[in-house]
Each structure stands twice: as structure tokens, then as C-alpha cells.
Amino acid sequence: MTTALTPVAPAAAPTAPIRSAGTTAPGLSDLPPPAGTAVFDRGESRVRLYCRTFPVVLRRAKGARLFAEDGRVFTDFFCGAGSLNYGHNNDGLKAALAAYVAADGVAHGLDMYTVAKREFLTAFRTHVLEPRGLEYTAQFPGPTGTDAVEAALKVARKATGRSGVIAFSGGFHGMSRGSLAVTGSGRARRAGGVHGQDPVTFVPFEDGPGGAFDSVGLIERLLDDPSSGVETPAAVIVEPVQMEGGVRPASAGWLRRLREATERRGILLICDEIQSGCGRTGDFFAFEESGIVPDVVTVSKSLSGYGLPMSLTLFRPELDVWEPGEHTGTFRGNQLAFVTATAAAGLWSDEVFHRSRAETARALAEFGAEVADREPAVRVRGRGAVLGIDLAASGGGARAAHVQRYAFDHGLIVELAGREDEVLKVMPPLTIDPAELADGIGVLRAALLNRI
């Protein structure tokens, strides 16, 4: 557990006005860049995003707090896009990492045998897989989530001998070529040069901006009709909770139907748990609520627990059809990440940690219910320690940008999601101090319920 800090009052709001409705690029701040950032503008690509959304130079971080160079303090409801579920510089993880580095532990090991990797595999099996009755083989495909998805798609195609994949509208799986092919976002696909020739069939998710949809029924009809034009695919890839898609949880019944439909037809089911996993949406994996067992699972982001790059592709042992060296990568053996991931896995046998994450989830659910009760036009969705506040019918992306800007001005970092950045995606650390959580919720309450 991260040591709790004494709550710090958020900084006073800057005098710059909150952006007006209709401003383009909702969510991007119109504040001038802070002092000391000229080197970034001169030397770094325009592709950078979050420094524009949150224009502040950060110096240090602890728990749920970010400390800026200019003295401001922010509560972090963003958590590195889900990479810091255990908070910044978690004491237990930091101690393990510092001891390993001080002892000259191996820092880079490709896929060689190392003590650090052995200890991680043992801890992950002991604290995560075995208590859930899961028997998976682990592949370390590379440092990022998109690497895990690429490996999942490749192993599915190799194991089945088929090339097609079914994916869902609103899904997000990464920014490399194969991952983009199964990502619904038009903006991301266009930037990556991904077009309709990729062997991917998109169907609506169970719930989206257009309302509920029987997507499993559509998949079954397409696959059972010899004239549908859709051949039996290698896999179906799904996020049990669409996070970038606007915090849209799949229901347990829908996931069970999807599992049954794929199993009957010999299609592999890939669950992308890169952002929904590691405890963010309930138990360690979001799919656990439904009782299903996917064939392949991708895990990354908070897997290392410390913000260090690390990803896993998990699959049933009989799907391990790789030849040695068929899928490789220089940084697939991040030994420092193995060390912190081992410590993070141990938290899953820690009752204090479980009480903390349960309290965080309860507080978010209560706040979501309060918002929904006070303003019925706002749609609130969530599970576990993530809350999606959908303003599509109550000001849309422009209002979401207002709230995000108000939050920043009052010492809170929160991200936007959804098709038009119309959803506030609230993700505090699972280990957040209750007073810090109340501070952040208070800022959102002021922005939302006072109609900022």
C-alpha cells in the first residue's frame, strides 16, 4: 500500500476563462504553455497530446498526487491512462525496485532465463491465476499493450489457420498496424493508414451511442449464413469494458452468449484487458464477473504496477503453436518491470489492498448515482474503480471539455473518452487515500452539479 499523504488543498483557479461552447478540439486546453517548455516545442513532434490537455510541467508524484514545477498540486484521476492503478511511487513496489537496482540486478534480458522473470511468473501464478482457476501460458511479446494484441492476433491466426477477425464498434486495441485493424476509431485508423481491406468484420457492441444491439445474434446470423460474405474467423476480440469507447461495460449475460457462440464454432475468444484489467473494473480481470474463460487474454498498462512498460499475452497451453523466435522483440524482457510486477501481484493476497479498492469503488458508485439522480440527462456507467459520466445528451463534448478544464484549474486531472470526447473517464488509483478521493470528487461535483 502507498503511504497516505496529508491532503493538500488544490491550487486556486487561473484567471484564464474556461473555454466556450463550440470550441474546436474539445478537451484540448487553450491555456498558454507554462514556462520552461520551449525546448519541447523546438525539439518534439506536434503529435504530443496530453501536455496540451494538461499544460503543466510535472516534477514529482506520490500516491494520487502530482506535484508541478510551479508549486501546484494535482489529484490524479487519470492514472497514466490506467497504467498506475496502485498509485505513483507505491512504497512496496519502489522498495523492491530500489533493492534490485542497488544489487546490480539484470536490467535487460530479452527472453533469457532470469531470476526476476522466474519470480514474476511464480507470483503471477500464485496470486492471480491459481486463485481464479486459470491455466494460461504466458508470452512476453514486447513492452506495450499493442504488442500484446499483435501477438494475440498472430497466435490466433496461426493456431486456427484462418485469417479473419470479428471486432466491435467503439473498441480500442492499440496503435500498431494489426491492433489498428481491429480498432473502431476512425481517427486512429486513418492516422495509421488502415482501410477496409484488412480481414476484420466490425459489429456493434452490446451498447453504444445508438442504444442496445443484439450483436451476438448478428454474429451468429453472419456465420451461419453461407451467403453472408463473412467466413468463419480465427478470433473475436472484445474489451469486457470498453474504456476508450466511453466506459461501456459488457453485461455478464452478453459475454456468456459471446463465449458460447465462439466455442460452438471453434473460434477463439480474445479478451483485451489492457485497460480494464489489473483490478480497475472489479476483480483482477473484467471478464471474471461473467464466469467465462477466454482463450486468449491481453494484459499491460498496470501490469508492472509502477508505470514501467510491460505486457503479457496469455493463452490456453494448447494454443502455444509458436516456433522459437517466431515472434520476437528486443524489449520483451523488461527485468525492472518484472520486479515491480512481482510486488504488485502480491497485493492481490493483501486484505488491506482489497479493502482500499472496495472503498474506492463504493465512493465512485455513490457519486455516479448522485450525478444521475440530480441530472437525469447525464448517463453514468461504471464498474469497480472506473466511472464514465456521459454528457452526450447534456452539452456533449463541449461541456465535457468545460468540466475537464474546470477540473484542471482546480487541481484535478481527468481524461475524456467516447466518440466525441463526451465522456468523463474517472480513474483514481485503487489505493487512493479517502480524503484525496473526496477532494477529487468534490471538484467534479462542483463542475457537474453546478453546471459549470
TrEMBL record:
Which EC number(s) does UniProt give? 2.6.1.76
UniProt key word Transferase: yes
Q: Which GO terms describe its molecular function?
A: diaminobutyrate-2-oxoglutarate transaminase activity; pyridoxal phosphate binding
On the tree of life, the source organism's domain of life is Bacteria
Which cofactor is recorded for it? pyridoxal 5'-phosphate
Q: Where is this region: Disordered?
A: 15-35
Q: Does this entry carry the keyword Cell wall biogenesis/degradation? A: no
- Pfam families (alphabetical): Aminotran_3
**Keywords from the UniProt entry:** Aminotransferase, Pyridoxal phosphate, Transferase
Annotated pathway: Amine and polyamine biosynthesis; ectoine biosynthesis; L-ectoine from L-aspartate 4-semialdehyde: step 1/3
Family membership noted in the UniProt record: Belongs to the class-III pyridoxal-phosphate-dependent aminotransferase family.
NCBIfam families according to UniProt: PRK09264.1 (NF006733)
Protein name, entry field: Diaminobutyrate--2-oxoglutarate transaminase
What is the native source organism of this protein?
Streptomyces lonarensis
